[in-house]
Amino acid sequence: MLLPVIISGGSGERLWPVSRASFPKPFITLSDGQSLLQKSFLRACGLDGVSEILTITNSDYYYKTQIDYNKVVQSKIITSFILEPEARNTAPAIAIAAQYAVNIYGNDITLLIFPADQLIEDQMAFCEAIERAKKLAEKNYLVTLGIIPSRAETGFGYIELSEAINDADNTYLVKKFTEKPDMATASSYIASKNHLWNAGILCFKPQVFLDELEKHANDIFTTTTKIANTWDSTLIAHGLVELDRELFAKVPNISIDYAVMEKSSNVAVCTCDMGWNDVGSWNSISDLMEPDNESNRLSGDVYAYETNNCLIQSNKRLIAALGLQNLLVIDTPDALLVANREYAQEIKQMAGKLKLDGHPAAKEHKTVFRPWGHYTIIEEGEGFKIKRIEVLPLKSISLQKHEHRSEHWVVISGIAKVQNGDEFSELMPSQSTYIKAGQKHRLSNENDTVLVLIEIQCGHYLGEDDIVRYDYVNQSVSIT
Prior knowledge:
Layout: E1 2-7, H1 36-45, E2 52-58, H2 62-72, E3 78-84, H3 90-105, E4 110-115, E5 119-120, H4 123-138, E6 142-147, E7 158-166, E8 171-178, H5 183-192, E9 195-204, H6 206-216, H7 218-229, H8 233-237, E10 240-242, H9 245-248, H10 256-261, E11 267-272, E12 276-277, H11 282-287, E13 297-299, E14 302-305, E15 311-313, E16 319-322, E17 327-331, E18 336-340, H12 347-356, E19 367-370, E20 373-381, E21 384-391, E22 395-396, E23 399-401, E24 405-413, E25 416-420, E26 423-427, E27 432-435, E28 441-445, E29 451-459, E30 468-471
Parallel strand pairs: 1-2, 1-4, 2-3, 3-10, 6-11, 13-15, 14-16, 15-17
Antiparallel strand pairs: 4-9, 5-12, 6-9, 7-8, 7-9, 8-11, 17-18, 19-20, 20-21, 21-29, 22-28, 23-30, 24-27, 24-29, 25-26, 25-28
Helix pairs in contact: 1-2, 3-6, 3-7, 6-7
């Protein structure tokens, strides 16, 4: 049996302003309408011997992940989740996955670990590579996939090959890992023809990995073992494990390569060529799009004149480009990126500065997803904020109150069930209600169509943290 484990939640700061803390890279939708996360899920569904797919993600991304999966889910596949209270890098996440697998299956299973934010164009080649990796995992190797490089690239990690395990299968022992070398070093690696790109895709028996983890990163092994010992068997049976915040905070924040792979003498690599793309920058996104006659990649309402080799992406409004060359122009409702293509990798530094300055565009979009649906900020200013709210069928916002703001709700479509203090009412389209500051209230949609309303907030403080919740109702999104 093969258990694919999707590691989801990388910030993808090089893809700002679309990728943000509350809407990271795996949720980015490509031109075919599917997100990177959905593509990863379907890729796992296409492998032999898969009956369950485990996703490890931040608790803040759980509901959006469910919604994405629900659009493409395969009925035969069980979807399970481990929710992290905070990001602690790949080593803790993979250690937790191995603990989960041993807890349920013992060592009678093979784990396949891969990121949620990569693109693989050749599914057949991917499946073939995984079959080779599984054979090595059965021999108690920690197996990684290495991509045959097509160019010198400073943004990728590299794997140096040692002696061959099986020439016919293109499998080798690993001599050395190198993380993101400079251009001169990367060029020498390409010339040597003895280095592969590190895809970050791993395959192993869970107990074999845990033994190596105990040997090379005992602090991670010990802490994740303690975490696994706290799990409720009922939650595991229902496919949802929430990690203990206090214990998880004690796990070292370190990548799997630094913690285990670089230290172990038991690592093998499968050489493969499967159309791998880590979609790590806007230039990578550009390469996925069909160019026009001027080598431009245009998406949305874009008019270009005397413009060449540009990626221009419009969210809604018209973009008119005149006389531009070699630019990235990425428009969102609240942020516009204009960058020279040569600076695509440095966008991460720009996003980091926004985060350091506490700018809201580093964290959230104007549209924010919640368990019950989503809201979009239409306009805000001193003392007011206007939102468009959509509540999914048979979902409800928690019973809550706000200390510093009042709210006006106007129904646009659907029927709203409103609790306002001790009073209950139904609001039809064009009807409204007023909720004063400090009043307990709840909004519910008890129908099978989406409820849409406009919310007008008034007050001297309008932060999202001005909320006291009393309970949660109908917040889960089922996957069937």
